[in-house]
Design brief:
Largest sheet: 8 strands, mixed
Number of helices: 14
Strand order of the largest sheet: 4-11-10-9-8-5-6-7
Order of helices and strands: EEHHEHHEHEHEEHEHEEEHHHHEEHEEH
Number of strands: 15
């Protein structure tokens, strides 16, 4: 790079920019730039899973008290151990063990800066020259971005919309080879709103074992299920296949800004320790940042003191808004939803472009919707499904009704004349 007569030997990392362009944050930032500042109506955020600004989704008072107590104690103002403070790791281990046929120890739990750092650590620990990883399509694009930065080849297996977004096992087996290290399962599903049954997850475990790979179980939406299928953690099958369980307090407690997650070793047979994966995880943590120590210090009290009434209320609101979302989408001819959401905060919606005029694709749809109606919806291409949409229903019910009413008006405006 030259500036006048001086030649400088540095420049920005162009590859970094290319990889980050596919993240949900980057796409939402692009949509935000297209909002009409002259529109006096409130912006309806149907593009991301953060309902914390809405009063009906306010976190538990016990969680707030736990943070206050941790701060006032003056016991958590120092650096924390790289794997996390012991009381917090013990509390998370006990929390996860409630749903498992074996007990996790604090040594099985590593605390992370939200679930996104748990993803980063998992993929970094497994990356090696020539390795590949199997990711779901549609999925969470942060996996693709992190894999690309770590030189880990990505291969996509399909989730089948006509079968409730179940895994295409034939596709998984066709993709895997001797260089495949893992497959990722997101349950409850982001972006699909599905919840996998015990039997389906057992087949995931058996397939992974057959292929000699581990399972990365992204369970950041753990227990956020409100349909007929009960939530089952992948760690239940840890005796069949080693599992890295990723989670956080972000979604169930509705505090994504607190940045407290975990990476748990769900592997009673000790395969991940023998293979060096556990050591690689610890090594990564030694050169990375930690969650704030006072947040870690609050974790035992957050988990112990939050009442079931709080969780039941959140589930009740999500069930209500999922019903609203599904029913209102059925009223819009150019949109269709293959199945009613049963968990997480999202639903995938198919966009029928043949019924619209002046809309090129899903990105064009979302840009014009943001500009004209002040409604933000995520284009499906961001999660691997072109000409689909990912809509979140984790918003206050009246705001959701308002937002979907605007979507309906937008679609009517661009509808082809019969």
């Amino acid at each position: 790079m030259e500036n006048g007569s001086m030649k400088w030997c540095f420049q920005g990392n162009q590859e970094l920019g290319q990889k980050s362009d596919v993240t949900i944050r980057a796409v939402l930032n692009m949509l935000r730039e297209n909002l009409n500042k002259d529109d006096s109506r409130p912006v309806i955020p149907l593009g991301h899973g953060d309902p914390s600004p809405f009063p009906c989704f306010r976190t538990a008072a016990a969680a707030v008290d736990a943070i206050s107590d941790a701060l006032r104690s003056a016991e958590y103002n120092s650096y924390a151990p790289t794997i996390g403070v012991l009381p917090a790791r013990r509390a998370v281990a006990d929390y996860l063990s409630r749903d498992l046929p074996y007990k996790l120890s604090p040594d099985d739990v590593n605390l992370t800066l939200g679930c996104t750092q748990a993803i980063e650590i998992s993929l970094s620990a497994l990356a090696r020259p020539g390795a590949n990883i199997l990711l779901p399509r549609p999925g969470f694009p942060y996996y693709e971005a992190r894999a690309a930065l770590g030189r880990l080849e990505v291969r996509h297996f399909d989730l089948l919309p006509e079968k409730g977004w179940e895994v295409d096992f034939d596709g998984v087996e066709a993709l895997a080879d001797e260089n495949t290290v893992a497959m990722v399962i997101i349950n409850p599903g982001n972006p699909c709103g599905n919840v996998y049954s015990y039997g389906h997850l057992k087949k995931v475990a058996e397939t992974a074992r057959k292929l000699g790979i581990l399972v990365i179980a992204d369970e950041v939406y753990d227990h956020l299920s409100f349909g007929s299928t009960k939530y089952v953690p992948m760690g239940v099958f840890g005796s069949i296949v080693p599992v890295l369980t990723l989670g956080s307090i972000s979604k169930r407690w509705v505090v994504p800004g607190w940045r407290l997650g975990w990476l748990a070793i769900s592997d009673p047979n000790g395969i991940l320790k023998e293979s060096g994966v556990v050591k690689s995880i610890t090594t990564f943590l030694n050169v990375s940042s930690d969650p704030p120590t006072f947040i870690q210090g609050a974790v035992p009290q957050i988990i112990e003191n939050t009442k079931e009434d709080f969780f039941n209320n959140i589930i009740g609101i999500l069930r209500e808004t999922a019903d609203i979302c599904y029913d209102r989408i059925k009223e819009i001819p150019c949109l269709s939803c293959p199945s009613k959401p049963e968990g997480s905060m999202f639903v995938m919606v198919k966009l029928n472009l043949s019924m619209l005029e002046g809309i090129a694709d899903d990105v064009d749809f979302c840009v014009k919707l943001a500009r004209e109606e002040s409604v933000m919806v995520l284009p499906g291409v961001a999660v691997g499904m072109k000409n689909w949409l990912r809509i979140t229903f984790a918003v206050e019910p009246s705001s959701l009704e308002d937002g979907l009413k605007r979507v309906k008006a937008f679609c009517r405006r661009y509808a082809k004349n019969e």
